[in-house]
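Fold it.
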Amino acid sequence: MVWGAGPLDIRGCTEKIPPFMIPFLTRTQLLILVCFMTSPVSGQQPRPTALAGRSTVYAPNGVIATSQPLASAAGLAVLERGGNAVDAAVTAAAVLNLVEPHMTGIGGDLFALMWSAKEQRLVGLNASGRSGSLLTRQALLERGHQTMPADGAESVTVPGALSGWAALLERYGTVTLAQALEPAIRLAENGFPVTPIIARDWRSQEERLRQDEGTRATFLLGGTRAPWAGEWFKNPDLARSYRMIAMEGPRALYGGELGRQVVEQVRQLGGFLALEDLERHAPLWVEPISAVFRGYRVWELPPNGQGIAALEMLRVLEPYDLAAMGHNSAAYLHHLIEAKKLAFADLARFVGDPEQMTVRADALLGDAFVAARRALLDPGRAADRVAPGTPVTSSETIYLAAADRDGNMVSFINSVYDYFGSGVVVPGTGFALQNRGAGFSMTPGSPSTVGPRRLPFHTIIPAFVTRLGPDGREEPWLAFGVMGGAMQPQGHVQVLLNLLVFGMDLQQAIDAPRFRHLAGRQVAIEAPVGDDVRRALAALGHELVDESQVSFGGAQAVMRLARGWAAGSDPRKDGLAVGH
């Protein structure tokens, strides 16, 4: 192209530029943008040698890491005012409901692990909701369903997140629920510019968002399109819902006016919730489960979640000399992938609603059981193993971690499951209802078989790590998590091994390329892993799929130092780790 050699013809070339920007650009600016966005690339491009990285955040008093900068800023402001890690986490979660609405919110569920500095112990919270009392396998069969509905009102379960926010604040917080909601209320009323990765995901759901009246009105500008990166967005309906909750407490949803609106709309659309289901809901304080790996104790929540799969993977891998194999070598990746297959086969067969499980969780981590599973790992060949039933592989989730000057640490995960959950928004409420019912099975006799008032199988899992201190007692070390459905246990293991086996710092451990096993022999590996490793994996029988279409999750983490804190946030998301 010769600059200035003729008239500028940009017709048909501006479709990749956000429409709201076009009126503000000169014709020359438009041409430059089009040149960069549409010019062809000749030849095959080499794989990048690394992902875009960041540096670890270090701070003396407190830290928070979330998947969106405004949420991190809101949480940091709480810490700077003297609030604790729980106050900051709930405040940030409320903001994330607004700024990352396809991932999270009070229409979803919550799980948390918290190290209480006062009690010097780790506590677990399961704030997941049950299926509606009207939901039966027979009712679904009579409607012609042979598998669980994956979206729509039939997939809606009781939203538990708000009850979890309130429970955490009541037991361990220093601010009220109303105070924690205030930053999100201001943002919802005044608006904010949407961040790039969230905008991309939002736009991918435009057609689905048009299908529901409340969803269309809430999340599509003018009822027609999703916002672009940098474009302003408000959610006054969510602000009104939050104000109602600030005045009435969580009861507004669990039996009050907001709850009645939810039940009436869900029932009108064919769902199975009753107001009594919301009234009877209560979060559960639970004992975390753990496994020791290389002198560190890794903690997860017990079922109905999949955290036990991460622990089983670590136990299977414990005896192998992973360091000698080399980070992300073919041998290393092969062993991790095969360990994942073994753990997920057990997950699919044994894990679901704890009241329906016939095998205790600790039995899946026992020496004899793990040794028998490890014996099935063939170091020279990929197993053609598929977990029984339909594996659950998607989940749209936020994870955040926070720590304060007193030593409290929170590992916190909140999700509506798929993008925008069920795709149902009750008109006027401003938040999406989750589709956790998709975690049930239609197979009789399974721990996850659908039925009334049952806990669905859950993919969202917070994690925590302790180690022995100088006095021989367990001390907190790391609160972390990796978002992304079935990616979560395998992501937990990969980040941990980066830290404990390969000695990476916190941000390096998050940035490092990951694999994601999908099903059977199918596996995706992030681009920085080279072609020589890919060829070696293929020779072992692995089927490598196009990684550009696969999500490798998003991690956040906070780590206790000898003095002060470290924090990291995944460049695969829009997030930010900050401290003071």
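The first helix runs from residue 27 to 38.
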